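Reviewers asked in the last cycle whether our approach scales beyond single polypeptides. To address this, we selected a multi-component target totalling 336 residues and predicted its structure end to end. The input consisted of the following lines:
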Amino acid sequence: MTILATAPPPPGPNPGFESPGVADFQLPPIFGPVTKPVLELVLAAILVYWFFTYTTRRPQLVPSKPQFLGESFYGIVRNSIARDNIGPEFLKYVPFLTTLFAFILVNNLFGIIPFIQFPTFSHPGVPYALAGVVWLMYNIIGIRKHGFLGYLRVSTWPPDVPWWVRIVLTPIEFLSNILLRPVTLSLRLFGNMFAGHLLLLVFILGGQYMLVYSQSILLGILSPAAFGLAIVFTFFEAFVQVVQAYIFTILTASYIGAVLADDH
Amino acid sequence: MEPGQSRGGGAQPPPPSEAWTALSYLLSGFLLFGGIGWGLDALLGTRVLTPVGLLFGGAASLYLIYIRYVKS
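The resulting structure, written as structure tokens, was:
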């Protein structure tokens, strides 16, 4: 630390390290109102569409490699997400869940793919929209299955408790199941993507500052540590991105399962 | 157990998503009764009702989670 303290003040303007923040997520428009996340969303939709049409184009009994890949993906969603959480009527919802999982996964992985490197869901509006779709979907499924009052009963009426306990618990259930579910669903995805991107920005911009702008030999020598941690956290982010896409999908399946259940 | 068996087959472990859905119950209790306590505090000029509401809401949420996931 003495080296740092006795180092002469650097020549020229050196405003110090400005830590990355929300401003780094406000990307300038590329043309018109179109920004990078908009292009990423379109690209993700095209990629997902292409992947599933390509892998299921000429289905054969003994699958080719692409077909095997597509079918495995579908199989994971069908068996470990839909069937475990929805119950006997799960098959109807598998295509939606598969598309949802693939779309979120691609968008999340954009956060670490070189030259794209921006997770679309780190803008809160994007997961809000997706959670809104899920919210509409499970409410409509529930109302169709039980009728409006029956649906409210299934989702806000805890079984086998005295009436005075219901006065306390039913408002909580209503708030949780009808109002808060889309919020927690979207905020979880947004928070993870936002924090992950910020973390990578801190290490990469910090390393860049140490190496290029700090004009301190010690910080320059130490800067590879920052870049090394950036690489470590990139792998960690890959893990988080897959997990978050999985959690979003499994929660969607579990909400659909909950409104389809006859009684909890 | 076969991977991905359907629900309702007796003594099966609950699906892993239940841990995540319980979170929104917990939040709701704190928000609802903490909010009621806060509103009453503002209305009556007291300060004690917000923590009381928060504690009560938290306890109610935990009880609800018990009813929804453990008892049934």
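Helices of chain B lie at 17-44, 49-71. We regard this as preliminary and will revisit it once experimental data from Aim 1 are available.
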